[in-house]
Amino acid sequence: MNDGTREEEPPTHYLRQDKDGSRMQCGVSETEAVRLGASNPEQGAGTYIKRGKRASIWAAFREDTLWFSPGGPETGPFHRLDLPPAHYYRRIARPLNGSFAHPKSPGAGEERDTIAVAAGQARALTRHLDRICQTVHPHTETLGVYGHEIRNLLILAATEVEAHWRGVLVANGRSGQKLNTNDYVRLLPVMRLDQYAVGFRPYPWLTPIRPFAGWNSQDPTKNLPWYDAYNRVKHDRETQFSDARLETHVQRRRRMCVSAIFHAH
Asked: Cα(210)–Cα(195) distance, rounded to whole angstroms?
């Protein structure tokens, strides 16, 4: 029965991460904020904030803690979480403590077979690239070369990136029918693809690149140059053959690495 009183909305979850890597997660409502995982939070320092008569819960945070900078955003160092605790997006991983060798995903055990197949495909493509680089030494002066083997590998690598994109979207509820870059670009902020830079250890003189830098939803095919070139080479080899350059494949190989590592591990 409704007695006329307004039921308070369930708390929204926020994360505060310090420069040293330490984290604090809170459930925040209009009237109070509680640090998750703290025993007796009402008795701890900074683990329980009560709004009282102050203008908002964030005004109470500012008054009761030293975490907020003058003139900063209302929520200060806290970032709103899209998912509540114990929930996660499937087939998406993040580096653990900054290490790419140990990306972290709660669902890795469920995706064991997918990870194994993706790793096998990555090894096969890498061997193909190594064979090409035994013939064409990868250097800034030679990255403009093109040819049939390079074109074929470019198409395989780009379709592998598409497979990873599609896999992530479908695993998280998106229909797998007729997906294109308007759908794929939605992964950019979630996977933070534009934050990664990738290099080749066997060829340290090649400058690391950011494979997805500049990608956005305004024209998600054209502003991803390697993908645009892949489409041209795939559909019009006779006039666009020169787009099948070693440089373009190096970029695609790096993009495939980013997608493969962080979609499943």
From this structure: 7
C-alpha to C-alpha distance for 25 and 14, rounded to whole angstroms? 6
Per-residue tokens: 172: 């998280």
71: alpha, beta or left? (left if phi > 0; alpha if psi -120 to 50): left
DSSP-derived 3-state class of residue 242:
helix
Phi and psi based region of residue 86 (left: phi greater than 0; alpha: psi -120 to 50; beta: remaining): left
CA torsion sign for 223, 105, 164, 247 is positive
d(CA 122, CA 114) in angstroms, rounded, equals 12
Alpha-carbon span 37 to 42, nearest angstrom: 12
Nearest residue to 12 via CA among 87, 60, 79, 66: 79
What CA–CA distances, in Å, run from 137 to 7, 37, 140? 68, 55, 10
Q: What is the pTM of this model?
A: 0.71
* Chain segment 191-242, per-residue pLDDT in tens: 888 888 878 888 888 888 788 889 999 999 988 888 887 888 775 555 455 5
Parallel, antiparallel or unpaired: strands 48-50 and 32-35:
antiparallel
Q: Which residues contact 8 (CB under 8 A, 6 or more apart)?
A: 29, 30, 31
Helix (H) or strand (E) run with residue 32 in it: strand 32-35
pLDDT digits (tens, 9 = 90+) for 113-130: 988 898 898 889 889 888
Return phi, psi of residue 100, to 5°.
-75, -15
